Amino acid sequence: MNYQWYPGHMTKARRMMQEDIKLIDLVIELVDARVPLSSRNPDIDELGKNKSRLILLNKADLADKSANKKWTEFFQQKGYYVQEVDSRSGAGMKAISAIIQEACKEKIERDRKRGIKNRPVRAMVVGIPNVGKSTFINTYAGKACAKTGNKPGVTKGKQWIRLNKNVELLDTPGILWPKFEDQAVGMRLAMIGSINDEILNIDELALELIQYLRNAYPGTLEKRYQCEEAAEKEALQILEEVAKLRGCLIKGGELDYGKASRLLMDDFRSGKLGRITLEMPEEA
Ligand code: G4P
After folding, report:
1. Domain identity same for 128 and 206
2. How many domains does one find in the chain?
3. Which of 38, 86, 103, 243 is disulfide-compatible with 81, CB 3.0–4.6 A?
4. ipTM higher than the 0.85 cut
């Protein structure tokens, strides 16, 4: 789903998250593994201070394997627990419960010293729109988990999903907004499809992607679109070749650049161009 954001939405989302965060021990922050920085909002560090933190590199199946490793190390060095996941297939999910225990070991120890036994860790999922929060909750929680309903002492209306005897998850994820002001961030979010294509210039997006792929993933365009020596050509020339190869024509036989651009973006977003990451930790 694509979202349009207005200041009113953002203020409300932030206020709700401030309330919800008071109830939890652990913030599970989903980022898109193809754009792990652009898909974050730095406000989460302020909102989630004093909480245990786990970053999930979601959609890891679409991102470059070696980049996933680099990003994992990058965030680990900053003190976060990190795990790669594919929420659609469930890959990477098995490790999460153990990581949660590890991330919350201080809280568990504090409880133990106070004589509180077996109080489950409470967690909530947060992330920008479209990053995969609902998919993650559904896959991770699975069908077997029962909702625990309202609990005494907990804000009315909050639903907790009991994942196992050690962990409870707030069933509504917290929504963060991306840093739209930054143009490069906006461009990357548009590329992964998290900004509505209708408000974008799709040709411009496709040309940017071609330029990026030519440099960062040589051979990719050649392989999928049979264009030779992409590195030597103008991005527009490559788009033209894609249009010709795929028969993107308007009445009268002229090339339909818009159609070729959409095709290219769809190929990228669905992983048909291979596993691609759009930003690297070195640039951070
Ligand atoms: P949100 O709650 O954060 O807004 O995101 P949501 O779960 O709705 O997921 C957004 C889209 O991302 C969905 O695709 C979902 O299937 C896809 N997705 C989520 N996690 C992963 C992942 O780890 N890997 C891949 N490849 N895709 C993922 P959609 O096209 O909007 O819906 P659908 O066609 O899958 O139903």
Report:
1. no
2. 2
3. 103
4. yes
The pair of three-digit structure tokens given for residue 192, joined into one six-digit string: 């992964």
Distance CA 146, CA 162 (A): 6
Q: What is the dihedral of CA 87, 90, 95, 99, to 10 degrees?
A: 20
Q: Could you say which DSSP state residue 119 is in?
A: P
233 C-alpha to ligand 1 centroid (Å): 34
Atom of ligand 1 nearest to the CA of 62: 26
Burial 24-48, CB ≥16 within 10 A → b, else e: bbbbbbbbbbbbbbbbbbeebeebb
Dist. CA 107–CA 89, nearest whole Å: 31
Residue nearest to atom 35 of ligand 1 (CA): 88
Helix locations, 78-201, DSSP H: 96-103, 105-113, 133-141, 183-191
Residues in contact with ligand 1 (CB, 6 Å cut-off): 1, 58-59, 61-62, 86-88, 127, 129-135
Q: Residue 180 falls within a domain, yes or no?
A: no
Q: How far is the CA of 59 from the centre of ligand 1 (A)?
A: 8
pTM of the model: 0.92
Q: What is the CATH number of the domain that holds 152?
A: 3.40.50.300
Range of the domain at 208: 201-283
Question: Are residues 17 and 61 both part of a single domain?
Answer: yes
Residue 209 belongs to some domain of the structure:
yes
pLDDT tens profile 146-200: 455 444 444 456 789 998 889 999 988 999 988 878 889 999 999 999 887 677 7
Chain position carrying tokens 């799709």: 202
